[in-house]
Write a sequence for this structure.
């Protein structure tokens, strides 16, 4: 396995999974064994105190947080359930490249659309270009210079519904006579988080499957 060194027995992992209602869930478990260059055994996830039996042949996104490495992301498919002694496990096949990031926890998808941004120093909303989005924030571009650590409100449409999302400017970079700003979401409720995650991962899957209009 290329980059096999990023995956080890005992690593804690987060599985981004869409249930039968197409709602995103984050299931936490651990790697039980690295079988070979393409296959893993994971402990069957537990949700709300009970074993959560995952459907087979389902593709999911996985995040591994490793000290001194960063964040590792890959996709895998559930193949079959196996019982090892008294431990319930699931055999999985890795179906994507294993990618390492320094700090990123969630997948980030590129997008090119205009959104409105409310900024306390301006009487009217600012039109900005949304460059990418993840479960924790957005990257925008505008000719307007904004102050670091300012609180802003982004008006974004997710899955046909308008959201006004509070955030804080945590990064600022001047590029080609424009400014790019990294904005971290703040004070989101569980419903908003689920909606954003659902949008991001559906967008990611559509992009991977070649749907340029996603």
């Amino acid at each position: 396995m290329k980059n096999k060194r990023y995956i080890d027995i005992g690593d804690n992992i987060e599985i981004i999974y869409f249930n039968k209602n197409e709602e995103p869930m984050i299931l936490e478990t651990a790697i039980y064994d690295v079988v070979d260059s393409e296959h893993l055994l994971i402990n069957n996830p537990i949700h709300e105190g009970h074993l959560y039996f995952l459907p087979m042949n389902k593709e999911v996104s996985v995040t591994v947080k490793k000290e001194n490495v960063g964040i590792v992301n890959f996709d895998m498919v559930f193949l079959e359930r196996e019982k090892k002694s008294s431990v319930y496990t699931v055999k999985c096949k890795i179906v994507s490249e294993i990618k390492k990031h320094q700090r990123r926890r969630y997948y980030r998808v590129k997008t090119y659309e205009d959104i409105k941004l409310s900024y306390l120093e301006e009487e009217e909303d600012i039109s900005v270009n949304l460059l990418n989005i993840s479960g924790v924030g957005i990257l925008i571009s505008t000719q307007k210079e904004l102050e670091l650590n300012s609180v802003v409100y982004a008006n974004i449409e997710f899955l046909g519904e308008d959201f006004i999302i509070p955030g804080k400017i945590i990064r600022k970079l001047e590029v080609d006579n424009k400014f790019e700003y990294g904005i971290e979401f703040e004070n989101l409720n569980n419903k908003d988080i689920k909606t954003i995650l659902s949008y991001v991962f559906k967008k990611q899957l559509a992009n991977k499957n070649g749907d340029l209009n996603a």
